[in-house]
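User: Design a sequence. Structure:
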């Protein structure tokens, strides 16, 4: 035996490994039992009763002094932006799929239009807002509506479009008579929903993927604006949105994406048939929307310029299609609503090197007008520089530093 005392026993390693595996299996079984027990555990308080309890459990707490309109508080509510408060009915509307539980609360005096959160992302959230956003049972929303919930308060339809995976909830709210002033907004929000059936339902309810607002803009125009994501624009295109639609101001989705420097969405539009030759409000096409500052393109404009060159977007504008000299002159200016995006500069044509095509007389008039505008811009810039220098504060002395020891 002594001859083997210096060598490890191979069977002991196997036994230790088996013991560890058995211990791990035992712990997993205990954890699973605990989770199952927690899922089926009786409710411990009024809030849990509202969130997942039966009507009988809710009634038990109400009979024993629970106040039906006293907001719940808890640290776990901070993630919802609720400032640690939510009413019992809102808690039920958010998580309880049994409409009878909500009906019991309402019968005991719960306010169907209570608004607790005054700030944050859930400002003006009401019970119907929570049902619209989080509860996939449309009967819950229907119960609140039948009890007098205001369908136009708390952005219920917007939240159903963007957040609720069940398209039946959106349809139920829409059929309840929600006032829709801008259909493109709700279609745009529905395009953000991970479930494409919600977008399809919104399209059916609101009159088509290109349902337009008063100015003729569809949801695809919203996707082109700042914050518009290519995933949302792609969802709208898959649903059949017209990429070359022109609104009442003469803008196309592509021109709007270029103006707002939304590079990935502009690329998506070009790859899906966006026509850069469709005239936008400035009559210069997409090249005319690339602005310079101090003679240089900004970073996003450089990216768009590279995209135009990659897609071989032409730089030609046919001036013969512009009927009058006044229209020609106006086409070279950006009006007040656009000037902030070009830092107050009005002349766009001289920035981009667009190649013009037209009669000699038209080209001469255009060149003369551009020279006048360039000169006027240069004089304004000089005056502004002088005014800035005259109003600049006197340079302050740098603070005295302690001598090094």
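Assistant: Done.
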């Amino acid at each position: 035996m002594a001859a083997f005392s210096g060598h490890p026993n191979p069977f002991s390693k196997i036994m230790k490994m088996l013991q560890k595996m058995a211990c791990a299996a035992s712990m997993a079984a205990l954890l699973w039992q605990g989770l199952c027990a927690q899922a089926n555990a009786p409710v411990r308080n009024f809030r849990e009763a509202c969130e997942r309890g039966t009507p009988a459990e809710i009634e038990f707490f109400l009979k024993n002094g629970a106040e039906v309109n006293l907001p719940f508080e808890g640290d776990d509510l901070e993630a919802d932006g609720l400032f640690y408060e939510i009413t019992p009915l809102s808690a039920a509307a958010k998580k309880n799929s049994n409409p009878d539980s909500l009906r019991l609360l309402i019968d005991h005096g719960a306010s169907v239009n209570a608004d607790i959160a005054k700030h944050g992302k859930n400002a003006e959230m009401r019970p119907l807002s929570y049902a619209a956003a989080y509860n996939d049972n449309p009967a819950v929303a229907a119960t609140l509506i039948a009890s007098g919930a205001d369908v136009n308060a708390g952005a219920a339809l917007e939240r159903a479009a963007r957040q609720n995976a069940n398209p039946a909830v959106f349809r139920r709210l829409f059929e309840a008579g929600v006032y829709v002033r801008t259909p493109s907004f709700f279609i745009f929000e529905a395009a953000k929903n991970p479930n494409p059936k919600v977008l399809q339902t919104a399209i059916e309810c609101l009159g088509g993927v290109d349902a337009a607002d008063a100015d003729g803009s569809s949801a695809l125009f919203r996707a082109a604006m700042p914050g518009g994501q290519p995933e949302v624009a792609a969802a709208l295109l898959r649903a059949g949105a017209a990429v070359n639609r022109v609104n009442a101001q003469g803008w196309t989705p592509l021109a709007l994406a270029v103006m707002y420097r939304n590079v990935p969405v502009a690329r998506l539009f070009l790859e899906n048939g966006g026509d850069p030759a469709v005239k936008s409000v400035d009559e210069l096409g997409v090249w005319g929307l690339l602005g310079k500052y101090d003679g240089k393109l900004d970073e996003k404009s450089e990216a768009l310029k590279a995209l135009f060159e990659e897609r071989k977007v032409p730089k030609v504008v046919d001036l013969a299609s512009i009927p009058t000299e006044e229209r020609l002159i106006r086409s070279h200016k950006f009006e007040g609503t656009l000037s902030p995006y070009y830092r107050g500069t009005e002349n766009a044509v001289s920035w981009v090197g667009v190649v013009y095509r037209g009669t000699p007389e038209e080209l001469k008039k255009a060149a003369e007008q551009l020279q006048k505008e360039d000169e006027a811009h240069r004089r304004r810039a000089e005056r502004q520089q002088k005014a800035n220098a005259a109003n600049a504060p006197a340079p302050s002395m740098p603070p005295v530093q302690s001598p090094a020891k």
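The beta strands are 72-73, 85-86, 292-293, 296-297, 316-318, 355-357. The domain at 44-177 is CATH 1.25.40.20 (Serine Threonine Protein Phosphatase 5, Tetratricopeptide repeat).
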